[in-house]
Design brief:
The chain is of the alpha/beta class. It contains 22 helices and 30 strands. The strands form nine sheets. It has a five-stranded parallel β-sheet, with helices on both faces. A four-stranded mixed β-sheet has the order 2-1-11-10, with helices on both faces. β13 (358-361), α14 and β14 form a beta-alpha-beta unit. The two termini are 43 Å apart.
Length: 659
């Protein structure tokens, strides 16, 4: 672990951490990037030189302290450097989601008042140019990849390589000014502004200080004993707080190496090549990996499939206990060791997870079955509960106390309380400064004593101190008979099945629960091929009778599992339909971080919800969709509505169940 002599003291900004790393770990690899199939690397000393030149070059271009700089693109070292260079010049970096459409970018660019934009490539430059008739504050656009931009008007368009070259040439001219700005940065200076995903409305600009980021990074590095030797893969959106804390905050505090894949398409290949020791992914990534594994096993020979099933049963039974250092019989250890040679080891190697010492999942709740699958393989996967407003960390799971049904104990330096309504509140050094230009929302979310409302409902187990999250507070409700309704609990169980990509469960104030299902085209397509089922589109496959029967079996298995939970047994799914399209962020049905906008989906597909509850066997619908090129169109379909068996249970009112 990195130890710093004395108090945190002078290490009160990311640029200060950069100076420390270049001085003490100058020859250690700080960044790697795969480009054209070849890994390139930079040491901390080389990284410092690049960032210094970039900061000088941006100042030569007119960047001033207090400016807001939008940064758009996939994970690349130069874009991470630009965030630190912007801070070094006294300005504020504002990373944007690279897959956001022009209209979404327009709101953020206008709201933050960005004077500068640093864009990865032509695609991002085009989106910025498209909205300049509405966003008038942008004065300079800097691009990283010059391909396709040769014939553009370069009056206010600059190659980042030219900016860096200018910075090197003008170093003496700006050295004194930069040194003065850097010396003025303190714990209360703004480190970054990150926009929320906008699940329930317009995104909000979350202002995070150096204190927020550095204290959160320091505490979490010490908690998991992270060292300068860690390897991480930076592939999640740079606009997401999780990536910022792992790839900037923790990376600069612990001085470990950040690896950037060549592209989203090569991420899994690059993951295998790097073999990270410290890994973070939202549930969707783990779900996708599991789906791929299950598809391969279905296509495997009978012998391989038999061995897989045999040893995975052993892993499920004793794997988590072995991982946690608990007592396991010699025979079980022998079987698990043999399974590790034949199944678990090769499987982890295929997934690029052989070297993971600490793994985290967050952003959404992960299904307990998916969570246990990875831990049974010997992967030290933990759940992390956090928010942008917390600089990520609210709760963490200590080694030996990792469970699927809780999100752990308060993170170091964090206090948690539950109010009378069941909503979770927290207070920590990571608590955000404010919502930019939104004092009303700031006051509504954070009180005068620094307590922040999470919007999640949960409770603290009295015997363990672990926090259990039930669901989003606004989504937790009563059914008409008083039973507790918590849709996310059921949705996560449904998504354990590789054939189910997404699920949306309804039931608030109703007499029963019903669900929309999105099938996973890869998994169900592979299944259809094995079963000689022909189809020409997602829509046709989704409505095939055999697919409905398969999904019905999954729903009924989930119902049996839900029935075992005394508090939530009323949430069994009585009826369901398979949607004719995948829920899509471009259509406003999901956020850019892949969270379902439940209210939007319910309103947009109101006719389908009605059909689930009025006894219809089918329903005709027309849905507007957005194509990749921005054009609008309509999908017309007649959807089947199917019934599922439920397990009779005696439900209890919410107040009684919570006692």
């Amino acid at each position: 672990m990195v130890h710093v002599s004395g108090a945190t003291g002078a290490l009160v900004s990311i640029p200060a951490l950069l100076r420390r790393n270049a001085r003490e770990y100058g020859n250690q690899t700080a960044y790697r990037e795969k480009e054209f199939g070849i890994w390139q690397s930079w040491t901390w000393a080389e990284t410092e030189a690049e960032i210094d030149a970039m900061a000088s070059g941006l100042m030569a271009l007119g960047l001033a302290p207090g400016d807001y700089v939008a940064i758009i693109g996939r994970n690349r070292p130069a874009l991470y450097w630009s965030m630190v260079a912007v801070q070094m010049a006294g300005a504020i970096p504002v990373p944007l989601y690279q897959d956001a459409v022009a209209d979404e970018m327009a709101y953020v660019l206008d709201h933050c008042g960005a004077r500068f934009v640093i864009a990865a490539d032509q695609e991002q430059v085009d989106k910025v140019i498209e909205v300049q008739d509405r966003v008038h504050g942008i004065e300079q656009i800097v691009y990283l990849d010059a391909r396709g931009l040769r014939k553009y008007d370069h009056g206010k368009l600059h190659a980042l390589s030219d900016v860096i070259a200018e910075g090197r040439a003008a170093h003496e001219r700006f050295a004194k000014a930069l040194a003065g700005i850097e010396a003025s940065l303190d714990y209360d200076s703004t480190c970054v502004m990150l926009y929320t995903s906008g699940t329930t409305g317009r995104p909000k600009g979350v202002v995070l200080s150096n204190r927020n980021i550095i204290e959160s990074a320091k505490n979490s590095v010490e908690f998991d004993k992270l060292t300068v030797g860690e390897e991480v893969l930076a592939y999640l959106p740079m606009a997401w707080v999780g990536d910022f804390i792992f790839s900037i905050g923790q990376a600069y505090w612990a001085a470990f190496c950040v690896n950037c894949p060549e592209s989203p398409d090569t991420m899994l290949t690059d993951l295998r090549e790097i073999g990270p020791t410290y890994f973070f992914a939202p549930p969707r990534v783990f779900e996708s990996q599991l789906t791929t594994v299950m598809i391969r096993m279905e296509d495997a020979s009978r012998l391989k499939k038999g061995l897989f099933d045999r040893f995975m049963a052993v892993a499920k039974r004793v794997g988590p206990d072995i991982l946690d250092g608990k007592s396991v019989s010699a025979w079980d250890r022998f079987q698990y060791g043999l399974g590790n040679i034949l199944i678990y080891g090769p499987l982890k190697n295929t997934m690029g997870m052989s070297r993971i010492r600490v793994g985290y999942t967050a952003g959404e709740a992960i299904g307990p079955e998916i969570f246990q699958f990875y831990r049974s393989l010997g992967i030290n996967l933990k759940q992390l509960y956090g928010q942008t407003e917390a600089s990520v960390f609210i709760t963490v799971q200590p080694d030996g106390e990792v469970r699927a049904d809780t999100v752990g104990v308060p993170a170091p330096g964090t206090e948690i309380r539950i109010d009378a309504s069941g909503e979770v509140f927290y207070r920590s050094p990571g608590v955000f400064v404010e919502y930019y230009k939104n004092p009303e929302s700031t006051a509504k979310t954070k009180d005068a004593d620094g307590w922040v409302a999470t919007g999640d409902a949960g409770f603290i187990e009295p015997d363990t101190g672990h926090l259990r999250i039930i669901d989003r507070a606004k989504d937790v409700a009563k059914m008409s008979d008083g039973a507790l309704f918590a849709p996310k609990y059921v949705e996560n169980k449904l998504k354990f099945y590789p054939n189910i990509l997404e699920a949306v469960v309804f039931g608030a104030a109703r007499d029963r629960c019903c669900a929309f299902i999105n099938i996973d085209l890869n998994a169900v397509g592979s299944w259809a091929e094995r079963n000689n089922i022909a189809y020409s589109s997602y829509q046709e496959l989704a409505q095939h009778p055999s697919v409905y029967e398969m999904i019905r079996e999954h729903v009924e298995e989930v119902n049996r599992s839900v029935a075992e939970d005394e508090m939530l047994s009323g949430c069994q799914v009585h009826r369901f339909l398979i949607l004719h399209k995948e829920l899509d962020a471009d259509d406003g049905e999901m956020t850019r971080t892949r969270k379902v906008r439940r209210a939007v989906v319910g309103e947009k597909f109101d006719d389908l919800v009605t059909a689930l509850y009025d006894g219809s066997d089918s329903v005709y619908t027309e849905t507007e969709v957005t194509y990749e090129d921005g054009r609008k169109g309509k999908i017309k379909a007649t959807l089947r509505v199917a019934d599922a068996k439920v397990v009779p249970v005696a439900t209890r009112p919410i107040a009684e169940a919570a006692e």
